[in-house]
C-alpha cells in the first residue's frame, strides 16, 4: 500500500456561493469535493446559521498542488473582497492519487 | 378587533427572547419547513381565486401595480438614499431593490389581519406578491451597474425566477388554479387550517432574527432608522392611492398598501448578494428586517388599514 | 372524479421544478418527518381494520399474496432482465428484488385515490405493504449469490426487519390494532386529518428527487425505460387477477394491483447496498424511481382501477 | 378509561424499537420541533386559565408548592443519596436537583390522561411547571458547592431562566394570558388540536432515548433502580397531600402529585453540566430518564390518580 | 505541555455504511471517531443528501500510524470497489497520546 | 501569491459548551472559528446526537502557534477533566496571515 501526497484545500464561506463554487472547482481541475453545513465567526461578524442568509458551508477539495494553487488564486480574485470567506491548505496522503 | 392578534404576540415574544439572549432557536430546517408551508398556502389561496375569474380582467391592474410598484418606486427611492443618505452607489441600489420588492411574511400578517376583521378582499392579491418580487431586482442591478454587458442576465433571471420563494408561490398558484377550492378539500387541514399556527411559528422565529439585527442598528446611524420607518409609510400612501384607483375593496386596498410598504428580506438579499456583491448586505437587512418589518407588522398593518378606509370615505368607492 | 388529484399536482410541480433546476429542496429532516408520518398513519389505518376481524380469516389471502407477489414474481422478472436486458447477474437480481417488493409512496397515492372515489375497500391492505416488502429481498440476494454460506443472513434480516420503513409500519399496525378506532380519536387530527396534506409534501419532494433521476436515464438505454413502463402494467394485471380470485372488492383489487405493480425505492435499495454491493444502485433506482414511480402514480393508478372494474364485470364478483 | 392511552403505546413502541436496535430515529430537528410545540401549547393552556382568575388568589398555593416542592424536597433527597446511596457529593447534589425539579413530558402525559377522563382540573397547573423547574437547581448547586463565592450566579440564572424550556413555557403563558381563549381560536388547529398527536411523536422519540439509557443501567447497580422507582412514589404521596391541603380538585391533585413525582431530564441536566461539571451526567440521566420517566408514565400516572381519589375520599374535599 | 504526534484519517463515504464502519474502526484499534453529515461529488457522481440514499458522512479518526494503516487497508479491501468513498491521512499533534 | 504558515486547532466536544468556548477562543486571541454539528464516540461513550444532551460540535480555529498553545492549555485546564472533549492541532497554509 503506497500513499501519495496531495493537497487539501478547505474553504469556509457563505452558503449562497455553493453552486457557483462547485462549478468553479470543477472548471479549475478539482475532481471532487465534500461539503458540510457550518456556522462561525470571522471578520464579517457572526454567521450563526439561524437562517439561510447567515449560514456557512465548509468545502474540502483534495487535489494536486497545482490545482490547489489555481483554486486559491481564483477565489482570491473573485470572492475575497466581497464575501465572508476563508481558505486554508494542508498536506494529506491519499491511497489512489489518480482519483484526485 | 381591539386586541392584538396572537400571531403578532409570537413575534413580540421572539423579539424579546432574542434581545434577552434566551437559548431559543427554531432549528433551521423547521424554519424552512414553516416558510415552505406559508409560501405554498399563500399561492394556493391566490390560485383558487384566480380560477374564479378570467385572468384577462386582471391584466390592467397587474400592469399598473407592477409598473409603479416594481419599476417606478425603486427609481424614486434610489436618489433619496444616494444623495440624502450619502450611501455608496451599490448600497443605495441594493436598498432600493429591497424596498421596491415585497415581503411575504408581511403579506401573511396583513392577510391574517384582514381575515380576522371578516371584511371582503380580493384574494388574488397573492398574485401581486409574485409579480412584485422580481422587477425591483432588475432595477436595482441596473442602478448599481448601468446597463452593463458584463451582467450575466441569464444567471440573474435564473437566480430570481427559480429561487425558492417564487417557485413555491407560482407552484401553489398553479395547483390552486387547476384544482380549485373543491379539489383542495382533502389537503385543507394541512394547508389552510394550520395557516395561522404556522404563521405564529414563523413570526416567533422572525422575532428572534429581528433581535439579532438590532445589534447592527447602532453602527449605521440614525438615517437608516428614520428611512426604515418613514419610507414604508410613504410607500403605503402610494399603495393606498393605487388600490383605490384600481377599484379595490377596502380590504384589498389595505393589503396592496401593505405589500407596497413592505421590503424584501429573502429573495432580494439573495439576488443582490450574487449580482451586486459589493453592496453591504447588513445595511439593507438592518433596514428591511430590523426596522421596516417590525414596524409594518406592529404599527403599519392597522395604520394602512385606516388609510384604506379613509381613502374610500374621502374619494368614495 | 374527473379532475386530477391535487396531491398528484404536487408531484408534477416538484418534477417540473426539479427539471428546471429551481432552488427548491425540502430539508432532509422534513422529508424524513413526512415519511415517518406517512408510514405511521398507513400502519395505524391497517391496524384499526385488523382489530375488526380475526386475523386467521386473512391467513389464506396472505399466503397467496406473499407467495406469488413476493417469491414467484421476482423469479419471473430475473430472467427477463438477465437474458433480454443483458444485465449483469447482480444487477438483474437487484432490479428483480426492487420490483418484487413494493412502494409505500405508491400505496399512499392509490389509497388517497380510492378514498376520493368513496368506494369501499379492504383497509387491512396496509398489512400487505409490510408483508410484501421483505420476501423479494431474500429472493434477490439468493439470485445474486446463490444459497451462499458467506451471506450473513442475520445481518440481512436485521437490516430488513429493523429498517425504518418496516419498523414504523409494524409499530403503527400494532398501535392501531391495540387501540382501535375509538382509542385513536385523540391523535386523529395529527395522523388522519393531515394525511393528504402530508402526502402532498411527500410527493412534492418525490417529484424533485425523480427529476434528478432523469439525468441518468439517457445513460442506460431504452431497455430500462421500456421495462420501467411495461413491467408495472404486467404486474398490475397479475395483481388484478390475484385480487379478483381472492374475492376482494373492486377498490381492494385496484389497491392490490397497484401494490404489486409498484417497485421499492427505499427498503430494497438499502438492503441491496449492504448485501449485494456490486449491483449498481443507479440502474435499479433509475427504473423504480425515475420511471415506474411516476408512471404508476400519473397513469397507472387510474388504469389499474379500470382493470379492477373490468375484472369484476368480466369474471363477476 | 380501561384501555391504555394511545400516546403511551407510542412510548412503548419507541422503547421496544430502541431495544431491538431498529434503525429508527426522529431527526434531531424534528424532535426539537415537537418539543417546542409541546412547551408552547402547555404554556398557552396555562395562560388561558390564568386570564380567568386574579393572579393574587394563586399566590398562597404557589408559595406552598414552590417552598415544599422546590426547596424542601431536594434537601430531603440529598442525604438519602449521599449516605444511603454512598454517592459522591456532586452526584448526590445533582440527582437531588433532578428530582426536586419537574419533567414537562410527564406533565403532558398526565394532562392527556386527566383530559381523557373528562374530569375537571385546575388548568393553571402549567404555571407550576415553570415555577418548579428552577428552585431545585439552585438548591442542587448549593448542595454541591456550599454558598460559594466562586459560583457565577449570574451565569447560572441566565442558563436556567433563559433556557429553552422555561422561555417557551413563559412565552406561551404570557401569550395565552394576553390573548385569552377567544383570541387564540385562529391558532387552535395547530397548537391544541394537534397536541395529542405531537405528544405521541414526542413519546415515540422518548421511548427510543430511554432504550439507549437502559444499557447504562447495569453499570450503576441496583440502588439507582430502586431509587428511581421508590422515590417518585414517595414524592407523589407528598404531592397528593399538598394538592389535597391546597383544596385542589381530584384531577388537579393527581396532576400536582405527578409533577412532584417527576424528575427533570432537560433543564436540570443542562444547568448541572455547566454549574457542577464534576457530577457524572449519566448517573442522573439513567435515574430520571431511564427509570423514573417510564415508571411514571406507564405505572405512576394512573396510580397517582388513585392516590388523589383516595385522599379526597379519606380526608374529604 | 507536550504534544505528541498522531495520524488523522478522514473518510468520506455513503451514509449507509455508518454503523458498519464504526464497528470496523473499533475492531481495528481506533479508540474514537467523529462523524458529520456531508454531501459532495466524486467519481460516483453527485451525492447531494436530498434523501438518505444519496447522503454522505465524513468520519475522522485520530489514531496511531499503525492503526491508520490498518484502517486504510481494510477499507481499501472491503469497500473501495463498490462504494462511493475517499480516504486521506494527515498529521496532527494531540495533548494526551494515551487517549488515542 | 504567498502563503504563510498557521496552526489549525480542532476541538470536538459537547454541544452545550458552544457559547462558553466561543467566548474563550476570542479572549485568548482567536480571530475566528468555524463550527459544525457532529456525533461520535470516545472515552466518555457514544454521543450520537439523538438529542441535544448527547450531541457534539466540532470547532476549528486557524490561528498563530502562540494562540493555539494558549487555547490548548486553557481547555486542558478548564474542561478536559469533566467534559467529553478532544483537541488536536495541525499545520495549514493561509492566504492572508493578518486575518488570523
Ligand atoms: N480564524 C478562523 N478560524 C476558523 N474559521 C474562521 C476563521 N476566520 C473566519 N472563519 C470562518 O470563515 C467565515 C468567514 O470569515 P470572514 O470572511 O473572516 O468573516 C466565518 O464565518 C467563519 O466560519
Ligand atoms: N477530490 C475530492 N476532494 C474532496 N472530496 C471528495 C473528492 N472526491 C470525492 N470526494 C468525496 O467523496 C465522496 C465519494 O467519492 P467517489 O467515490 O469518488 O464518488 C464524494 O461524494 C465526495 O463527497
Ligand atoms: N480518537 C478519536 N478520533 C476522532 N474523534 C474522537 C476520538 N476520540 C474522541 N473523539 C471525539 O471526541 C468526543 C469526545 O471524546 P471523549 O472525551 O474521549 O469521549 C467523542 O464523542 C468523539 O466525537
Ligand atoms: Na415594497
Ligand atoms: Na411490486
Ligand atoms: Na419532582
Notable characteristics:
heterohexamer; A: 100 residues; alpha+beta; Alpha-Beta Plaits; 5-stranded antiparallel β-sheet; 2 helices; 24% helix; B: Na+/H+ antiporter like fold; binds adenosine monophosphate
Structure commentary:
The complex is a heterohexamer, with three copies of chain A (100 residues) and three copies of chain B (317 residues). Chain A has 100 residues and is α+β, with helices and mostly antiparallel strands. Chain A contains two helices and five strands, in the order βαβββαβ. Chain A has a five-stranded antiparallel sheet. In chain A, a hairpin with a 2-residue loop joins strand 2 and strand 3. The radius of gyration of chain A is 14 Å and the shape is elongated. Chain B is an all-alpha fold. In chain B, helix 3 crosses helix 6, helix 4 packs antiparallel against helix 7 and helix 5 packs antiparallel against helix 13. The longest helix of chain B has 35 residues. Chain B is globular and about 50 Å long. The chains are: A alpha+beta (100), B mainly alpha (317). At the B-C interface, helix 2, helix 9 and helix 10 of B face helix 1, helix 2 and helix 11 of C. One adenosine monophosphate sits at the interface of chains E and A. One adenosine monophosphate sits at the interface of chains A and F.
